[in-house]
Design a protein that fits this description.
0% strand; Globin-like; mainly alpha
Length: 157
């Protein structure tokens, strides 16, 4: 390993240790949260059908989500996907993001210590807002500050 790579690895390890010390988040907590959250998603009347139409085998999806949340919350660098590209074709709008966030926050607050739950929820809010804005922009909808994506074609769904 080169000196630059060793230095980067050391910085990442220090960053992860700092986040873990402040929040208590570790890989086991991430896995517990993600598994519990997606159990709720699958059972949810609004979100469940969207996922059921696209995910046939849940374990590979969960493994990706463990890596994603590890990268988001611990800055681990484990995830190497393109979440925006995965979400662009989905039939979702602000209502779906609200429900996703409500389920996620409820799960995090039930399963995690307060500092960890806060860290997860802050990240989830940023992710949800970013995805909603990206989907709106891709569908030629410009959202003003505070405006939510509404797709009338989804009203009957």
């Amino acid at each position: 390993m080169s000196t630059d790579a060793e230095s980067a690895a050391a910085r990442r390890a220090t960053l992860i240790a700092d986040i873990q010390a402040r929040t208590g988040i570790d890989e086991a907590m991430i896995e517990r949260l993600v598994r519990a959250f997606y159990e709720r998603v699958q059972a949810d009347a609004l979100l469940g059908p969207i996922f059921a139409a696209r995910i046939r085998s849940w374990e590979p999806h969960l493994q990706q989500m463990f890596a994603f949340w590890s990268s988001v919350t611990l800055m681990s660098g484990r995830y190497h996907g393109q979440p925006m590209q995965k979400h662009l074709p989905l039939p979702v709008d602000g209502r779906h993001f609200d429900r996703w966030l409500a389920l996620f926050e409820q799960t995090a607050r039930e399963l995690c210590p307060p500092a960890a739950a806060d860290h997860f929820v802050q990240s989830a809010r940023r992710i949800g807002a970013s995805l909603e804005l990206g989907i709106a922009t891709a569908s030629s909808t410009m959202l003003r500050v505070g405006e939510r994506l509404h797709r009338p074609e989804l009203d009957a769904v």
